[in-house]
Recover the amino acids of this structure.
């Protein structure tokens, strides 16, 4: 990754942190309709919370898996908006930086950077801890990324819109970002774990069920280019 790219990533992350600290465009239930009309599409360098069909939100934290890769764990968390649920939308690995505010087109390839820990949403050929599907982790940093961080945005229409279902397809393995209520961390399958009560997030081959469906919830949104 070039020095220019690294500087651009750091600058974008700083903008997101500033927006979060000072209110910015972080949506909430009382103003969701207003934000939806003002920011109807997901744009590059926006930081979004992804709401699973189960009602849980994609989440990460500085807690490593005790099995598999041992990398930073990714789960789905129940409840209201949380800063550790924010993932910032970036260009694909080794692709030019796309201007902030550019709409994310359906079918495009992006990376999702966990804002709180600055690591990339990642997958690879390790077993997930509960279901033994494909593990999803957060890994790397602004200067360390690879194609295992690339996700294809699968949606209908021209652009990724906030009110529509989206599937995130891991490009290297052609698998779908998924979660399931029955795959919850508990005292029974993870004694003493700090992530008990959260759902396992994993990648699966099948795209045909609700477990692969996500929507964009709260976030810090860059205004679409030209508006």
């Amino acid at each position: 990754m070039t020095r220019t790219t690294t500087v651009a990533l750091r600058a974008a992350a700083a903008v997101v942190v500033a927006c979060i600290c000072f209110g910015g465009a972080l949506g909430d239930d009382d103003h969701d309709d207003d934000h939806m009309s003002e920011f109807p599409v997901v744009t590059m360098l926006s930081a979004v919370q992804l709401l699973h069909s189960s009602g849980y939100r994609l989440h990460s934290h500085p807690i490593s898996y005790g099995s598999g890769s041992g990398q930073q764990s990714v789960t789905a968390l129940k409840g209201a908006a949380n800063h550790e649920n924010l993932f910032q939308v970036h260009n694909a690995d080794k692709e030019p930086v796309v201007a902030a505010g550019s709409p994310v087109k359906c079918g495009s390839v992006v990376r999702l950077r966990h804002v709180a820990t600055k690591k990339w949403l990642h997958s690879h050929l390790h077993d997930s801890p509960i279901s033994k599907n494909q593990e999803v982790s957060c890994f790397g940093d602004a200067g360390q990324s690879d194609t295992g961080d690339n996700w294809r945005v699968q949606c209908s229409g021209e652009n990724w819109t906030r009110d529509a279902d989206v599937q995130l397809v891991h490009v290297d393995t052609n698998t779908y970002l998924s979660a399931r209520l029955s795959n919850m961390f508990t005292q029974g399958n993870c004694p003493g774990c700090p992530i008990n009560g959260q759902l396992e997030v994993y990648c699966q081959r099948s795209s045909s069920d609700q477990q692969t469906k996500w929507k964009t919830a709260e976030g810090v949104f860059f205004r679409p280019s030209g508006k």
Notes: The domain at 3-220 is CATH 2.80.10.50 (Trefoil (Acidic Fibroblast Growth Factor, subunit A)). The radius of gyration is 16 Å. The helical segments are 3-21, 32-38. The chain is about 10% helix and 35% strand.
